[in-house]
Amino acid sequence: MKVMKFGGTSVADQAAIERLIALVRAERQAQAQTEGGDARGPVVVVSALSGVTDRLLGLAALSGSGDVEGARASLQDLRARHIKVSGVIADASLRKPVVDALNAECDALERVVSALAVLQEVSPRWLDALAAVGEILSSQIVAAALSSHKLLATFVDSRQAVVTNDEHTAAAPLFEETTAALMTHADPPLAAGRMVVMGGFVGATTSGVTTTLGRGGSDFSAAIVGACLGASEIQIWTDVDGMLTADPRIVNNPQVVPHLSFAEASELAYFGAKVLHPATIQPAVARNIPVRILNSHRASARGTLITAERPKAAPLTAVASKKGVTVVDITSTRMLMAHGFLRRLFEVFERFKTPVDVVTTSEVSVSVTIDDARRLPSIIDALSSFAQVEREDAMAIVCVVGDGLHEDPGLAAQVLGSVGDVPLRMVSQAASRRNITFVIREADLPFALGRVHDRFFAQPSIAAQASAGQAANVS
Ligand code: ADP
Ligand code: ASP
Ligand code: MG
Q1: CA–CA dist 302, 473 (Å, integer)
Q2: Distance, CA 117 to ligand 2 centroid (Å)?
Q3: Which atom of ligand 2 is nearest to the CA of 134?
Q4: Please, which pLDDT band fits residue 451 given cuts at 50, 70 and 90?
């Protein structure tokens, strides 16, 4: 059984959902032709229609600021767009209940908007309740659309099937409970030869309160469901040909990386390759399930396959980058060498639930980067009781990944040298030596990324030559 996850652009409108239907049909036909293969499924996991989660979060902000009229207008657009897209459900008897359900969902949303406008405050719990609506609507439309095209599908509500802790807006799955819930809700239709359609991104606590897994979390949902049901493959259908050698929004000529290891993919996702949510690989590793990234607009492209091991390839695999990062410098001449200082320092970030990405130390200071600066004022306050603290916003992380870094001691220096005189604020190489990571000003990112990409990825032979040249120098 395979899990096929379709991102927002892959369910954006009727045409996109028709492409989805064709891809699911092709998968069913391939299954039928595989002798002795597992003929169950697939399980289809869908995102909200593209842009809808942003809209819902915008709606929450409008309500919180008391702008009921603005929120209602936005909600009206959302309702109209979903009703229009449900036109893809060819069979009217299947379309009607879906349109009724989405009207009921939008009516409920309208009541929530009015209540939040009175309170003028949106708690994380309410944010989740609002954000989840996108996937709740899209999954019902897609389930009925498949059924109306003779691909019999059962809609399974993710709020019943994916159980999480109560960390609202970034909930973590509870695997045992989720497996049990999927056995109850998803296994029977699969055993009966039907497909299952679920919304990604969404779950609920053991007491049934709606949660979300964090932005981009539908990939993670697909992996969770795949791991719990023992899938043979997790497919991430998106709008690019696979994992590319760099972010296509910043670099002109990125190429597809045909095969990645789990470790490489995790590192790239963690450091900003948006095509994959950073937590996606974890459940796949636990059950050793291959993950494929595929283009729903161009099914003929081969995509990227991610497995535990991969064949040897170029010394550098890809470069990931992340904007909007804040560097925090913590200086303490008195304390740094004292034992317990780092514990005390990191405890502050832990207390304010703020993950730290890159860390570097000098004799008297520690620098860390964080992605989420919402709680930084409180963090700085707490740190200031034992150190001097400075922050610098609008920074970017660049992370170059490749096994060549481990094998060729000169390669990291070449990578750093390739960005010319762009000031490097922090540089770090972890024990795995599979990546070299540096922090620069956000404004320098396009230039620096372009330089790294031109030098090492635009023509793979150049990377090979650089590596070979360096090896010759060393020997
Ligand atoms: P989906 O809605 O299908 O989940 P996302 O927008 O989350 O899609 O992720 C796909 C996007 O990720 C691409 O359109 C691309 O702009 C961006 N991206 C950033 N870095 C990379 C990369 N290294 N390889 C591929 N895509 C990347
Ligand atoms: N719809 C959610 C988001 O936009 C989840 C996802 O698409 O993966 O973040
Ligand atoms: Mg995504």
Answers
A1: 38
A2: 25
A3: 1
A4: very high
Kindly give the number of the ligand 2 atom that is closest to the alpha carbon of 217: 8
119 pLDDT band, cuts 50/70/90, is confident
CA-proximal residue: ligand 1, atom 11 (nearest)? 275
| Helix, strand, coil tally for the chain in percent (to 5) | 45, 20, 35
Phi then psi dihedrals of residue 370, to 5 deg: -130, 155
What is the rounded average pLDDT of the residues 221-228?
98
Residue to mutate (ligand 2; options 53, 54, 56, 276; most atoms within 8 A of CB): 53
Atom 8, ligand 2: residue with shortest CA distance:
216
- Cβ(135) to ligand 1 under 6 A? no
Rounded to the nearest angstrom, the distance between the alpha carbon of 113 and the centre of ligand 3 is 27
Which residues, chain by chain, have CB under 5 Å from ion ligand 3? Answer: 7, 216
Q: Mean pLDDT lowest for which of 100-109, 176-185, 425-434? A: 425-434
pTM over 0.90: yes
The residue assigned the tokens 């024990």 is 431
**pLDDT, averaged across the chain:** 93
Q: What integer is the mean pLDDT of 158-184?
A: 97
Copy the structure tokens of residue 313: 């390839």
The C-alpha atoms of residue 435 and residue 445 are separated, in whole angstroms, by 18
Mutate which of 236, 275, 456 for ligand 1? The one with the most ligand atoms within 8 Å of its CB, which is 275
Residue 458 banded pLDDT, cuts 50, 70, 90: confident
Q: What pLDDT does residue 38 have?
A: 66
Residues touching ligand 2 (Cβ under 6 Å) are 7-8, 47-48, 53, 134, 200-201, 215-218
Q: What is the pLDDT of residue 468?
A: 47
Tell me the DSSP string of 396-460. Answer: EEEEEE-THHHH-TTHHHHHHHHTTTPPPSEEE--TT-SEEEEEEEGGGHHHHHHHHHHHHTSSH
